[in-house]
Design brief:
The protein is α+β, with helices and mostly antiparallel strands. It folds into two domains: 9-79, Nuclear Transport Factor 2, Chain: A (Roll); 95-200, Nuclear Transport Factor 2, Chain: A. The chain contains five helices and eleven strands, in the order E-E-H-E-E-H-H-H-E-E-H-E-E-E-E-E. The protein has helices at residues 33-36, 67-73, 95-109, 113-117, 138-148, and strands at 13-20, 24-31, 40-49, 52-60, 120-128, 133-136, 159-165, 170-175, 185-187, 189-191, 197-200. Strand 1 and strand 2 form a beta hairpin. The longest helix has 15 residues, at 95-109. The protein is globular.
Length: 201
């Protein structure tokens, strides 16, 4: 299904937040309903090499489209890609942000809410974009993760496959626990000058 040739001049797609640097970034976009029939708020994980974009993967939630419109846009399971060129630019993210993402993910995959929580500041905000929910503060985040890590796609048994970002922000895409094995989404910890995560979107 082709959309771009039919887009009206009133259709807009614009970034609302850019976190990263000249090598890689996570960009939050808003697409107005004139483009796809409903508003889309997406996250784009972008890798850049020699001043050119070499990898761009969008993550978005189509549930607010309604089942009928979302079904028209859905890629059939047998044609859904299993490789998003995760190895195209390995190590493109900063070493500091890669280490933070790996630490946080290790706690998630190991169902260790306490180890994950110590990476957050006391005033951190954990936003679960799938549930449209915000959890405020390290202690509340720990309680939430303690109840949910064994149920979340990016929780127990998942794996991290690609990281983008600069010194202060990162996006990490991952695969849920078997048997699906497909990339499931993006996480976004933002760092302060201390090694604790400021928040995760």
């Amino acid at each position: 299904m082709q959309y771009m040739p039919k887009w009206p001049a009133t259709g807009l797609s614009y970034p609302t937040r850019i976190l990263g640097d000249e090598r890689s970034a996570l960009v939050a976009f808003t697409d107005t309903p004139a483009l796809f029939g409903a508003e889309i708020r997406s996250l784009a994980a972008i890798d850049i090499k020699d001043g050119k974009i070499v990898r761009w993967v969008d993550y978005w939630d189509g549930r607010h489209f309604g089942a009928e419109l979302a079904a028209k846009m859905r890629t059939p399971s047998d044609k859904f890609p299993t490789d998003f060129n995760d190895a195209t630019v390995p190590g493109n993210a900063s070493s500091k942000i890669r280490a933070a993402a790996n630490r946080l993910h290790a706690a998630f995959a190991g169902n260790d809410a306490k180890a994950a929580a110590v990476l957050f500041t006391s005033d951190a905000v954990y936003e679960d974009m799938t549930l449209h929910t915000q959890v405020l503060g390290r202690l509340a985040i720990e309680r939430y993760l303690g109840r949910s890590l064994d149920k979340l796609p990016a929780g127990t048994g998942s794996s991290i496959v690609h990281v983008v970002g600069g010194v202060w922000a990162v996006a990490s895409s991952g695969r849920p626990r078997p048997p699906t094995g497909r990339p499931s989404g993006a996480g976004l910890p933002r760092l302060r000058s201390t090694p604790r995560a400021r928040s995760r979107d």
